[in-house]
Amino acid sequence: MAKPYMPKNILITGAAGFIASHVAIRIAKKYPDYKIVVLDKLDYCSNLKNLLPVSSSPNFKFVKGDTASADLVNFILVTENIDTMMHFAAQTHVDNSFGNSFEFTKNNIYGTHVLLEACRNTGQIKRFIHVSTDEVYGETDEDAVVGNHEASQLLPTNPYAATKAGAEMLVMAYGRSYGLPVITTQGNNVYGPNQFPEKLIPKFILLAMKGEPLPIHGDGSNVRSYLYCEDVAEAFEVILHRGEVRHVYNIGTKKERTVMDVARDICKIFNLVAEKAIKFVDNRPFNDQRYFLDDEKLKGLGWSERTYWEEGLRKTVEWYVANSDYWGDVSGALLPHPKAGMMPGHEGPQDTKGMLAQFITQNQAKTLAAPAASEHGAKTVENGAQVYTNGTVH
Q: Biological process (GO) annotations (predicted)?
């Protein structure tokens, strides 16, 4: 096996969100010699509280900003001497993509393109890890015994998956045309603490806590595979250090369950009668029946799933019971068919300065003056990007 890659300065996009926050925390804590810079625009499904465990770490910095801002991205790459990028930032909820597809194109395709171009321009990136999804493969045959492998054709069936597949094509092209050291991951569903409750498992948990019906699209026979967030964070740690450039890695599990199985398991934990608690609602415009991945390639790097479903679900339920108000008013997300306009943060501009001020106040931090722009970067940083580092907002 080749010598492990050792990064120095890592930019993680979207790390105030669910999966990336677990990755950022794991790497920042385990590798204190690595500098972790987070770039996140704090959309409705992001939360600064997700990063509290490392907010005062000397190797951690938070920048509020958009991946679609070329000026800002170039500025960060140069001033922070970034050598590694882990790109998680994306719009991810399929339901939203059916009614708000242009926003998905802007964030998922254009945002990725901006990052790639910045990496090409600076010429200093040694790893670009692009985070994609199992949905780019499209629907797996119900009787398939072997999952989609990394060379399988991409056949997305919904706007979200199409934008992720489009982003993958750009990543592949920049790897081939410009020699950018790219790695792509395609993962199964992830669950665990901190996940915004538009997704199935946290939505069902919060509804069960309220004694409200659990809405199931269609007949509930759709099959999915679920990985616990800490296992996925470990997978990204492995890929960061041992993944080969220009390769694709599936992050998956062969343990499948239907949506009905998930609903019944949650009902059981809350002592609910599933037949009474479950409510069948209209299906999505298109709802893939099954996603199934071949994960042998990643296992060859030394990774394996560690958390059994029962254990992971128990931990997740315990977290949501203890943090029921973590996201504030999420009534719009708990609807059977949530829409972007019903989500927090879509009613108008967010008070991001207030959010950041509250964030650092909780950590007994102090405020310093904004840093001057780098002569190598843009003359202005779009939207007055705010930086949080070592308990300080810049």
A: nucleotide-sugar metabolic process
